[in-house]
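ok new one. same drill as before - structure tokens go in, u give me an amino acid for every spot. 229 of them this time. try not to just spam alanines like last time pls lmao
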């Protein structure tokens, strides 16, 4: 009786140890995949990046939900990487990883700081610096971990409205006017997803009204960076 009970407990311990080792190995492989994603950006390798994606990827971005196959993902990044180079693509904080008890599903929260140089049609190359964060789900397959969905966002640069307005004031010779004067400025701005047209209308009290072509309008309180729809 005692020997049987001892054998039973020994078997349980062995199974728990095996499960723990298996979970640790899958986390190691997932971190390896995350490092591969980083390397793909630094080497502008769209094929390497798309190889870590599932057959279909659910993308949540810019108020939309889209489904893209692996070939579409590779095509997108081939175009995005064209003529570009990366000076940095680094984690701001270590990626936060949660793996299901079954070991076949994982959630990753990641924040990266990017320094990128990219071509501009008819102009010299420009350097961009931005911070991006996203949550992604990964599925365990016979080929290893594959990204199944991703929802991403970008950290807006603080005081960008003030910078644009101050530049517009200098450009049209309004530097000597009171700061509560009102004027209109238009700019073509390039964000993380591409260029867009924006109209900026200043207002007394340190506010600016931003109107995006074909999109929403915002009021920016330039002292504290607060944005109201």
């Amino acid at each position: 009786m005692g020997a049987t009970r001892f054998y039973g407990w020994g078997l349980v311990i062995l199974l728990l140890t095996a499960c723990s080792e298996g979970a640790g190995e899958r986390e190691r492989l997932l971190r390896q995949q995350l490092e591969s994603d980083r390397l793909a950006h630094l080497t502008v390798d769209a094929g390497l990046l798309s190889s870590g994606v599932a057959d279909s990827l659910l993308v949540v971005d810019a108020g939309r939900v889209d489904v893209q196959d692996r070939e579409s993902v590779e095509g997108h990044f081939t175009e995005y990487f064209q003529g570009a180079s990366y000076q940095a693509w680094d984690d701001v904080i270590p990626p936060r990883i949660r793996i299901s008890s079954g070991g076949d599903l994982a959630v990753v929260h990641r924040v990266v700081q990017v320094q990128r140089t990219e071509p501009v049609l008819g102009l010299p190359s420009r350097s961009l610096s931005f911070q991006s964060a996203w949550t992604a789900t990964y599925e365990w397959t016979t080929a290893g971990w594959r990204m199944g969905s991703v929802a991403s966002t970008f950290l807006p640069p603080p005081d960008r409205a003030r910078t644009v307005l101050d530049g517009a004031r200098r450009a049209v010779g309004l530097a000597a006017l009171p700061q509560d004067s009102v004027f209109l400025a238009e700019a073509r701005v390039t964000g993380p997803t591409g260029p867009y047209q924006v109209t900026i209308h200043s207002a007394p009290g340190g506010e600016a009204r931003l109107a995006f072509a074909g999109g929403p309008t915002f009021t920016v309180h330039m002292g504290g960076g607060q944005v109201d729809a």
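The chain has a mean pLDDT of 79. and btw Residues 160-228 form one domain.
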